[in-house]
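Sat 14:20. Reprocessing the chain from the morning session after the first attempt stalled halfway. Input below, unchanged.
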Amino acid sequence: METDNNIISSDILTVAQLAISQPGALNVFTRYNIDYCCGGHRTLTEACVRIGLDPEKIKEEIYSQVSDTQDQPFRPESWSSSFLVDFIIQNHHSYVKRAIPELEALLDKVCHRHGDESLELLNIRERFLDLAEDLTSHMEKEELVLFPAIKRLDASQSTDHPLAITIQPPIAAMEHEHTVAGDLVKQIRVLSNNYTPPDFACPTFRITYQKLQEFANDLFKHIHLENNILFERYKHVAAF
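Finished this time. Tokens:
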């Protein structure tokens, strides 16, 4: 009966709230390219209708996975902000910094070899270079400015700390940059036909698309942790 109540309540929960509350939701959202980070403010029905999916089918898939994932310990919404910041830096920021030069080298190689027969590759490389530049600057601002401020605010345990107001513009700026990054990733996904290489693709071409998809999936989880969990906490602090 509890599951039925949850299913009914999902009609008014946002995609971001479902991503947090239902352990199986992230896999489903990733499978169907449902935006749960930058577009996480939409309800599940709104998000599905927007991209031509049946909300009831998606809802059923999410809740059918609950029994298989309930024992997973990964519940970042229960972590302290300081621990969550460290997790983001050590896992997602470090991954982005490693993956960018690898993907740039792969894209250069396949564009040199296949650029004449696959013009989409040239557009993909252009957008990835823009994405790489944006993310490099973005992560630096977070690590040098916003994240240390959040850690100080977390350590203060105060609801009226001056930083609660001061960090609002940086949070808004980071969320805007997340939207820009998400749009670039979506453009790459469309240009690559959802990361599906053409029949003539060589092994390097196929690996490049695989790596691009891995990069996108990690980035959406990364943005989800920041937008929907970490930053959301401090919007409420400021409002209080």
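Residues 2-69 form one domain.
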